[in-house]
Amino acid sequence: MTAIVGVTAQNTKAVLATYALPVWVITAQLEAVYDDIGVDAAKTGALLSADVIAAVADSNGRHPTPLVVNPVLRASTGAALLDPEAVEVLITSLLPLATVVTPNLAEARSVAGGDADRRTLAERIVARGARAVLITGGEGEGSDLLFDGAVHIEIPVAWVEGTATHGTGCTHSATLAAELALGTPLADAARRAAAVTAAAIAQGLVGIGEGPGPVAVGQASGASQRVRTR
Prior knowledge:
By secondary structure, this protein is α/β, with parallel strands linked by helices. It has 2 domains: 6-161, Ribokinase (UDP-N-acetylmuramoyl-L-alanine:D-glutamate ligase, 3-Layer(aba) Sandwich); 162-230, no CATH class. Helix content is 37%, strand content 14%. The chain has helices spanning 23-36, 50-62, 86-94, 105-112, 118-127, 168-181, 186-202; strands at residues 6-10, 15-20, 42-44, 67-69, 100-101, 133-135, 143-147, 152-156. The chain has a 3-stranded parallel beta sheet with strand order 3-4-5, with helices on one face. Strands 6-7-8 form a 3-stranded antiparallel beta sheet, sandwiched between helices. Strand 4 (67-69), helix 3 (86-94) and strand 5 (100-101) form a beta-alpha-beta unit. The protein is globular and about 45 Å long.
């Protein structure tokens, strides 16, 4: 189930506009799911504003649920997807509720409060309240880095040649949340998320628009995903 927190106007080249929904609508969506269907694990994506972050944190506080926080700060096109003043609210309100936080390297630097090597960044993020952090990718890195507060674990990542990379972070964090919902241990869930994301890039929709096309999850092995363009 999905609770929509905002609407964007975007294509493969740019995010043209964003609009955060009223908090009461977001809270009503969350309560509707918790009240009837139930939640085994949850994940966040682009939350857009401090008010939305506070509403999501309040909901998780009332309904404790394994939570994957994907701290989306910018779109892959570079457009901001979170108000700068809201970053601190995310750190203070949402990180302490997270089972695991899944920043890319740039997001890890922002959440950690400065630049450093990946292991130091992971330790700083845990020190700021997260129980575990999974830094995806890095400059020249062939692995993701998982830190559970005690041990650093390198998660091998297959290098995939592909330009359809729109949605990689969402795919990764959603797979991680799904695995945690099934009771998969965190390190194994991280390995599964890395594998699913790599396959989604390899099978991505190449040729849609002028920018990076979207990844494709769950396609048949070897299926052609090259799209005819006009």
